[in-house]
Specification:
This protein is α/β, with parallel strands linked by helices. It has 17 helices and 18 strands. The chain crosses the membrane at residues 20-41, 70-88.
């Protein structure tokens, strides 16, 4: 029996193996179905916050088909009453859990998602690859009272510098004026305690793990730093790792770490350097009164800034350059004494009443290092400041200095200040000089702070290379006088200088063991007149004529 050929060339027909075709088709469809199911599961896991909304919509549709609009109207009335009661009894929690989340959903869908691809393309953040486009992926949006925090994932081939350069374009594209770019997570993992702490720590280790391709964009929706910040409450006991000084642009309290660091404050005239100094002294008020903190103040401007709070200072100089140098040299002596005590025991000094934290406040450091006319005193001050800035941080002898000109030739010890605060500056290049190279490209626009923004500054936070924008509290003169009366410094007993005994040279001994005598010429005696006085009178040289203007004979 002959079999039919697979290909009939006479009729140009192919005998189709239908079992094979159906097998391949079914396998292909099953593979596509598996891929679709996996993608749906991944999407559902990523958008787990949408599950309650989907369930609510399904229940609402079923209730409408069964009972009409009456269940919906009843539910709305009950929810409105519960929301009003909640807003009346717990307004803060209602705003945090209801209002801000509603604003987050609205701005994510209408402001960011709707125009995301267009904005990323026009700002030059879309990459071309293999005939297609790689767009930054929008991950999450979180809104606060003043800011929108947008988290995105960069496509391959990008780094955060591209977003730093496009920050202003992004801000105006999304309808704001300021956009802050952060290459790292802005909030650390919370501290967990309790029975389930070990489980929560494992979860936090996954949630807060390092993600190098993630970028945080913070859009300032409502600038809270346009208003003057009122003085903050004085802590009952100062925490030297977190001293409250002002407000950040996200309405969080800005806390300065003063322990084991030196602070350099830079800003043009009348831009708020005094706000930083007095806010710092206010936060240290309780420690000043108890003796835990000793503030030594130097005001080279003759007391025009610091004299109003004189009772706050244990030592104060404003009128004598030599005394200013003596104060700094005394601080070096204190530092040396602590070195002898703490050597081999601890690396960072812990302030106590017996060994307090010494904070040296200098209102205008440039006057001491660059404009002081006496070169000898200037060298003494520069030498003492160099020792304090290079060795005093861990020993509890700290320097807080302010300057108008941060250039190296003016403030020669600028690089020895770990913590720097940039208020309104006059030149673009001063920003990088004060905060470090590239700080302006990372968002520190200190040269664009208006005159109305006194006290607004850019600072570097711990663990973040991007500077943060803060506004320090304004302390009026009457409040400074009240602070001086409420938190006076206890009297400080300054050590009297010990008399230095005269140095006695050892006696010289000759070869026989006897003391050798040193020849010292005697001083010449006053020359006596060669002629006796009787002969001088006889010669009429007693000066009578010379007294009358005549010449002696």
């Amino acid at each position: 029996m002959m079999r039919a050929p697979l290909v009939n060339f006479r009729r140009l027909q192919v005998a189709t193996p239908w079992p094979l075709v159906w097998t391949i088709t079914i396998a292909f469809l099953l593979a596509r179905l598996v891929v679709a199911v996996v993608r749906f599961l991944i999407w559902a896991v990523r958008h787990w916050r949408a599950w309650p909304g989907v369930v609510l919509v399904l229940v609402a549709v079923d209730a409408y088909q069964s009972h009409g609009w009456w269940p919906h109207l009843l539910v709305l009335v009950v929810l409105a009453g519960a929301a009003g009661l909640w807003w009346w009894r717990g307004r803060d929690s209602f705003h945090r859990l209801v209002v801000l989340r509603a604003v987050t959903v609205w701005r994510r869908l209408w402001v960011y998602r709707r125009q995301w691809h267009e904005t990323m393309t026009l700002c030059g953040l879309v990459k071309k690859y293999d005939g297609g486009e790689k767009t930054p992926e929008l991950l999450s949006v979180r809104c606060s009272y003043a800011t929108d925090e947008v988290v995105l994932r960069m496509p391959r081939g990008q780094n955060p510098e591209a977003y730093h350069k496009a920050a202003r374009d992004l801000a105006y594209s999304f309808g704001t004026r300021h956009c802050r770019v952060f290459s790292g997570r802005r909030h650390a993992a919370p501290h967990r305690s309790g029975r389930l702490a070990w489980v929560l720590r494992r979860v936090d280790a996954i949630r807060f793990r390092d993600r190098p391709r993630h970028v945080w964009l913070v859009f300032i929706r409502r600038d809270p730093l346009t208003r003057i910040v009122v003085p903050l409450p004085v802590p009952a006991r100062p925490d030297f790792t977190a001293l409250p000084l002002g407000l950040r642009e996200d309405l969080a309290v800005y806390c300065l770490r003063l322990l084991a660091t030196h602070v350099l404050i830079g800003g043009a005239t009348r831009m708020g350097k005094g706000s930083v100094i007095w806010s710092l002294l206010r936060s240290l008020g309780a420690g000043i009164r108890s003796g835990l903190v000793r503030v030594w103040a130097i005001d080279p401007k003759g007391g025009m800034e610091l004299a109003i709070g004189r009772p706050l200072f244990s030592r104060y100089v404003d009128d004598d350059w030599s005394r200013m140098a003596d104060l700094l040299e005394d601080a070096v002596c204190r530092m040396r004494a602590r070195q002898q005590i703490l050597r081999g025991k601890v690396r960072v000094h812990t302030p106590t009443v017996d060994e307090p934290l010494i904070v040296i406040v200098i209102d205008e450091i440039a006057a001491l290092l660059a404009y002081l006319p006496d070169s000898e005193i200037r060298n003494r001050i520069a030498h003492a400041l160099g020792l304090l800035l290079s060795q005093g941080a861990g020993l509890g002898v700290l320097v807080v200095a302010a300057t108008q000109d941060p250039r190296k030739e003016v403030v020669s010890v600028r690089d020895l200040f770990p913590t720097r605060i940039a208020l309104g500056l006059t030149e673009r290049g001063h920003v990088d000089l004060l905060l470090g190279d590239g700080s302006r490209d990372r968002g520190a626009l200190a040269d664009q702070i208006p005159l109305s923004g006194k006290g607004v500054a850019y600072v570097l936070l711990d663990g973040q290379p991007e500077p943060a924008r803060v506004r320090f509290s304004y302390i009026p003169d009457d409040l400074i006088r009240e602070m001086a009366a409420t938190f006076p410094a206890p009297p400080e007993v300054q050590p009297e200088p010990e008399p230095v005994p005269a140095q006695v040279k050892p006696a010289r001994v000759n070869g026989n063991g006897r003391q050798a005598h040193t020849y010292r010429p005697t001083a010449p005696r006053q020359a006596a007149p060669l002629l006796p006085s009787s002969l001088l009178n006889a010669l009429d040289l007693n000066g009578t004529n010379t007294a009358n203007g005549g010449d002696p004979r």
